[in-house]
Amino acid sequence: MLVLAIDTSGSGCATAVYDGAAGVILARAQEDIGRGHAERLMAFVDEALSAAARRLEDIDRIAVTVGPGSFTGIRVGVAAARGLALALGKPAVGVTTLHAVAESARKTEPGRPALAVIDAKRDEVYVQFFDALGQPETAPEVLPVDLARERFSGFDGLVCGSAAHLVAASEMAGEASRKTDMIDIAVVARLGAAADPASAKPKPLYLRGPDAKPQAGFALTRAVAG
Q1: Each residue of 200-219: pLDDT tens digit?
Q2: What would the pLDDT profile of 104-123 be if each residue is shown by its tens digit?
Q3: Which residues contact 170 (CB under 8 A, 6 or more apart)?
Q4: Residues in the chain with pLDDT values less than 70
Q5: How many CA atoms lie within 13 A of 107 on its CB side?
Q6: Residue 122 contacts by C-beta under 8 Å, 6 or more apart in sequence?
Q7: Nearest Cα to 136, choosing from 104, 103, 108?
Q8: Alpha helix segments (H runs only) across the chain
Q9: b or e along 125-138 (b: 16 or more beta carbons within 10 Å of the residue's beta carbon)?
Q10: CA distance 70 to 159
C-alpha cells in the first residue's frame, strides 16, 4: 500500500509518500511556512511524489491530519485529501494531531502511556491520554492550562507535544523536554496506513471555534428609494 500523507495542522506544511508493505518513507517534502497552505500544499505533494519516483495514480490511500490545530490549516488539508481521494477513487483517512504526537513520543520509549499536550494559545491546551499500547483512553479536549496541570499532576508516563512544558510537573521535566512544534509526517503516514477507512473518514476536529469571528453591530441601514 502506498500512502500519501498530508499535514497542514500548524505552521508547517508537510507531505510524504509511505510504503506500507515495507514500512518505510519513500520521500517527504516539508517546511515551516507559517501561512499560505492553500497556495503551496500541492507543490509539496508534487515534490514528495517526484522524489519517490511515483505518480499520483500510484497512491492507494490519502492520510491527513484533522486537528486539533490551526482552523484554516486543517480545513485546507482535509479538503485537499478529500478532493484527491475523490479524483483517484481511493480512500482517505484522518489522523488526529494528538495521536500523532503521542506515537512520536512512544517511538522512543514504547510500552509507556503518553499524555499528548498541544498549545491551543489563550492559556489553553489540547490534551488526550493514550495507554501503553497507544490506544486513546480519553477523548481529545481543550482545557485551561491550570486545570490541565492540576488534573494530570500525578501522571508518570510520557508527556509530549508543544505544550508539555506548560502542563508537566517538575518531576516530569525530562519528559517535557520532548515537546515538539512540528507533527512527524512519517508517523501520520504510518497511522494512516493502519487506520480503518470505514471509521476514520477525514473530518475536521475542532475543539473550539475559530479565533476570527464575524463582526456585529456595523451593518448599515439599507436606503430605500423613495
Answers
A1: 999 999 997 665 454 444 44
A2: 999 888 899 999 999 999 99
A3: none
A4: 169-181, 209-226
A5: 13
A6: none
A7: 103
A8: 37-51, 71-88, 97-108, 145-151, 164-167, 173-176, 185-194
A9: bbbbbbeeebeeee
A10: 22
